[in-house]
Structure formats: structure tokens, C-alpha cells
Amino acid sequence: MKRRKRNLVIGSLFVSGALIIMFSAEPFLHSLKALAVAVGVSEYVFVQWLAPFLSEFPEKVSAFYWARKIKGAPMAMMNLVSSNINQWTMLAGMIPIVYAISSKGFNPVVFDHHQKIELVLTLLQSLLVFCFLLNMRFSFYEAIAIFVLWACQFFVPSSREEIIWVYAFLLAVEVSLWVFKVNKPQAFRKFVKLWKEKISTKK
After folding, report:
1. CA-CA distances (angstroms) from residue 161 to 11, 28, 119, 125, 184?
2. Which of 136, 141, 152, 147 has its CA nearest to residue 189?
3. Is 120 exposed, middle or buried (0-12, 13-18, 19+ CB in 10 A)?
């Protein structure tokens, strides 16, 4: 395919995707809220956790498919990690920009108490998984712990503030293991090694 034609196809797909999202986002949100009421789960929690999962369903399917095999499991993990990096950098950075444009001013995004709890919970959860992955491995027990804590705060929203302290405790345990050299984070040494190899190849 010629470059001009390829760029036209890519641009058309981009515009088509944007139009689909623009016209389907609101009905999709209302459907999720109605489903949350039918199931008996908090609308806020339901939308917060289920909407990203459904919108990224193809990515999750490919990750779960790779995770079925030993050689594919690391690729599945990296697929999800790269997605989270994208969400916590570019996408999160775009929210204040879009908000500023819509509000016609450089106004800060203000969170209420419930949203602050959600934000702290999400940050601690991400930080805990980050600490787990610093060992360059992700054990079955670590995965179970993360899943159980997520399930508790999802199905019992009233326990979210208590689960924040559980995450904080587990983080303290991880840091203590590093301090007393029970576990040594491998990621930093791997990074230094790769950096040196990169520099040496350039020379």
C-alpha cells in the first residue's frame, strides 16, 4: 500500500473510531448505570471498574490468551503494564486539558471526599503492584492478594477506606523486606545493566 493511501486509511480509521466513541459513550454509560442498579452494586464503583474493562476488552482477551502459556505470560503482563503506563501518563494528562477547554478557563479538577478515597485506593493499589513487579516476577500469591482486595472493595464498597490501610500495610511489608534485604528489587540492577549495555553499544 502506498504511503499516501496508507495515511488516508489510518486517518479514516482514527476519525471513525472517534465518531463511534462520541455517539456511543453516553448510551454506554447509561446502560452501565442501569445494570449496576439491577445488580445492586454502587453505580460509581460499577462504572469505574467495569467501563475500562469493557472498553479495553480486546486487549484483555489477547493478554489472557497469551497468559495461557509459559512463554506468553510475560508478554501478557507487559501488555497490561504498558496500558497502565499510557493511562497514568498521556490519558490522565489530557483530562485537565479537556476540562480547561470545556470550562473555558484554567480551573483545577476538584475531587469530593468519595473521589479522593477512590484516588488514594487506586494509587496505593498501583504502587503495591509496582513494588511486586520490582522483583521482576509476579507470584501466584501476590496476584491472589491483589484480586481478593479488589473483589472486596468492589462488592463491599463500604470497606474501601479499611482496604486502603490494608494496601498501606502490605506496602510497608514490602519496603521492610527490602530494608532487611529479604527481597532485593531486581529491576534497578536490570535497568543499570541495560543502560550500560546501551551506552557501550553507542560507543
Report:
1. 45, 29, 11, 13, 30
2. 136
3. middle
Cell 503482563, located at residue: 77
**pLDDT, position 170:** 92
36 grid coordinates: 449496576
Mean pLDDT of residues grouped by 10 in the chain (203 residues)? 82 84 80 81 73 75 83 83 80 84 84 86 89 86 90 84 92 88 80 78 63
Residue 85, C-alpha cell as written in the block: 503506563
Distance from C-alpha of 133 to C-alpha of 130, rounded to nearest angstrom: 5
Residue 168's pLDDT is: 93
Q: Long-range contacts for 142-146 (Cβ within 8 Å, ≥24 apart)?
A: 145/170
